[in-house]
């Protein structure tokens, strides 16, 4: 039962990042740029660069996690990404910034900051669980497949 739950965590986190990244990639890049500016953390040139690169990182890491390819490095990347989400959203809440939509899923889903902080913390914890139990979540993975066939 625990193995299935951990495997479910892997696929849930993967789906979350695939949908989030894809929605930003197929939406207007300016929308995510404006969201990043609203958090008032990044200087303008960095916010613009992140608005271009970040959706690709989210989408790519989600796909790699779903496929189970390079699990450990991908999970470390996702721990950094989800941890940064917690920090950025947390500082916005503490500063009382007037952000009514987190921008996490582009135009697909609108979440208030107080709701998204729970999602971000949960995602971060799921990623840490996947990191801790890497062997369990390598079921149905390309890593697991290739490791079995190595001499």
Number of strands: 0
- Number of helical regions: 7
Q: Please, what is the average pLDDT?
A: 88
Pattern of helices and strands: HHHHHHH
Radius of gyration: 16 Å
What does this molecule look like?
This protein has 151 residues and is an all-alpha fold. It has one domain (2-137). It is built from seven helices and no strands. It has helices at residues 2-26, 29-38, 44-67, 71-95, 113-132, 134-137, 142-148. Helix 1 packs across helix 3 and helix 4 runs antiparallel to helix 5. The longest helix has 25 residues, at 2-26. The mean pLDDT is 88.
How are the secondary structure elements laid out?
Elements: H1 2-26, H2 29-38, H3 44-67, H4 71-95, H5 113-132, H6 134-137, H7 142-148
Main features:
151 residues; mainly alpha
Structure at a glance:
With 151 residues, the protein is mainly alpha-helical. The chain contains seven helices and no strands. It has one domain (2-137).
